[in-house]
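User: Teach me something about this protein's shape.
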Amino acid sequence: MSSVEENTLGVVVGRENLPRRTRAFRRPERTVSTTRANQHALGGRHLTVGTSLGAALIALFLLGLFLTQVGRMEHPSYSVVAWGLLLVIVASTTAIVHGLSRQMPHWLFAADLVGGVAVIGLDLYGVWGSESGSIIPTAALAVPALLLAIVTLRETVQILIADVAIGIILLLAAAAEERPDVLTLAPELMMIAIGVGPALLGVAVVRSYRRMVQLELDLVLVQSTVQAPQLTVGMLASEELTRLDDDAEELFDDVAGGRLPLPLPLEASTRAASLATELRLHLIEGRKETWLRHAVSESEFLAPAVTIDDPSSLAGVLTPPQRDALLLVLWLLVSDTDRWGATVHLIFGPTHPPRLGAYRTVRFPLVLETTGVLRRRVDAAAWEAMGIVGPHIDSVRDGSLRVEIDCTVDGASDT
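Assistant: First, the predicted structure itself:
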């Protein structure tokens, strides 16, 4: 599985913590490198700017509230130190993140959490025991704002756990403090919600954004197979063939340059035989796989949910518009966030006899058998795409959708 560090994009290419994802998935290296080079173009920088501005506004509001109540605090110096420490944490984190090309390593996140705990402790002690009983720990409430600012730089589950933990600490502190009037607890609870809530909202927004980007990126990557020949090799196989070709060229260069004598030594001859065997296997495999198999196997979202029964490689004779429409149908059926258990089984063929006067026309049925897909939940765009593939009849079997499409391809090639 390819690993890409998270940054302002907030997307890790090649993986997504989906409930049904149980197998390792490896994204082709060239697509990973392309994504790494163009990740800011996908709008992640704007999301980071938005969360940072929101965090700054919350912090400024809390700082203003602190200034209005500092005279009524029991130990105001501790709260002043807490605010100073928080400003140091924010400034140092900003400088380091910019210096690391908008990356936030684990050690920096851990240091921020430790510093945040110190800020909370100092501020809670600063307001503890106030006679009015209505002093708000403003610096402590500003720590979740820091989490909101870095939500695009870390895994959302880490931000979620930290934010919930801070909320629990503040709630326990508010409940444990002695108060002359229990009604003074209500404003503090409201302020805790105001402080903790934005980070939770940020987690929800970033999760939705990351999933949207990964869906679109994955769809674009697998759509490159639409223009492939009837039988071809996929991106992963192409990379492997390139590696084998480079190894073979290196071996030939060693022989031509006199670095390897002829006949070849045992180790070199074994290596040459292994390269030849791998090349033959890849070339043979490439003559048995259609574009659809590669599109499914190379898609992080389709691979766990789509199976194909196509012994005659009929998917290869579909025209590019039909291929594109079929790929869109599969995408719309399995990518809905409400259908984690949705699966689609494709059955191609057998071919129908050609109509009179249409000997170059290939006709065959394509059956889509689904599980976990309700007919009423199918997007209208999916029905439109099915119509491009061919005339279809739908039915419901065991509560799930079943569609039979009559595919017709004019002038199909036999190769």
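Now, about its shape. The chain has three domains: 44-213, 235-286, 291-410. Strands lie at 306-309, 343-348, 361-371, 392-397, 400-410. If you'd like, I can walk through any region in more detail.
User: That's plenty for now, thanks!
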